[in-house]
Design goal:
Layout: H1 2-22, H2 25-39, H3 46-66, E1 69-73, E2 79-85, E3 88-91, H4 109-128, H5 130-136, H6 144-164, H7 179-188
Antiparallel strand pairs: 1-2, 2-3
Helix pairs in contact: 1-6, 2-3, 3-4, 4-6
Main location: membrane
Family: Belongs to the plant DMP1 protein family.
Keywords: Membrane, Transmembrane, Transmembrane helix
Length: about 190
């Protein structure tokens, strides 16, 4: 019985991990950190509105771009990152990339869906942010309490689809496990003692 419940638990944690990989946490953090400065805490003039739009676009591009990156561990143990293309992975810095078969990292339709949902998560955070609403959408200030109730549930429902279809990419910020990282995780979580 313990084996079966652990399997269910492992699947749950794996699904949560897949959902976390979908979320643009670093970009959302950067947006939430910079937004009060850019919007002057919601009291923005025309220039600050332009800056906020530029910040939103830059963060949105960052969210989308990260969905089109992947990585692999070479024989020497180094992790190499690259851009996913229709022909395969195009690494940024691997000098031996021409000798490797990276065609298994081809661009897939799911990459575009993951990018769209990632940008939608950022847009949800932006619409729920009082400074952004006060600066860019002052007409929504009265509707914001309703948005706080509805939007997270809607994005969560869409996110549940990706628990069934997880993102298999190990892009920028989500590297594959190397032997050293695996050993370190085992030591920290009880697999090898401290």
């Amino acid at each position: 019985m313990a084996s079966k419940s652990q399997t269910v638990g492992d699947k749950i944690f794996e699904s949560v991990g897949d959902l976390i990989k979908l979320l643009p946490s670093g970009t959302v953090f950067a947006y939430q950190f910079l937004n009060p400065l850019v919007t002057n805490h919601g009291r923005c003039n025309r220039f600050e509105k332009v800056l906020d739009v530029v910040l939103l676009i830059a963060c949105g591009l960052s969210c989308a771009f990260s969905c089109f990156t992947d990585s692999y561990v070479a024989a020497d143990g180094r992790v190499y990152y690259g851009i996913v293309t229709p022909k395969g992975l195009h690494p940024f810095s691997d000098p031996d990339a021409a000798q490797r078969d990276l065609s298994g990292y081809r661009l897939r339709p799911a990459d575009f869906v993951h990018a769209a949902v990632s940008v939608a998560v950022l847009a949800t955070v932006a619409v729920l942010d009082s400074y952004t609403v006060a600066c860019l959408f002052p007409g929504l200030v009265a509707a914001q309490p309703m948005l706080v109730k509805v939007l997270p549930a809607a994005v969560g429902a869409v996110g549940r689809v990706f628990v069934a279809f997880p993102n298999k990419r190990h892009g920028i910020g989500y590297p594959p496990e190397t032997g050293a990282r695996r050993r370190r995780r085992r030591r920290c979580w009880g697999g090898g003692g401290i």
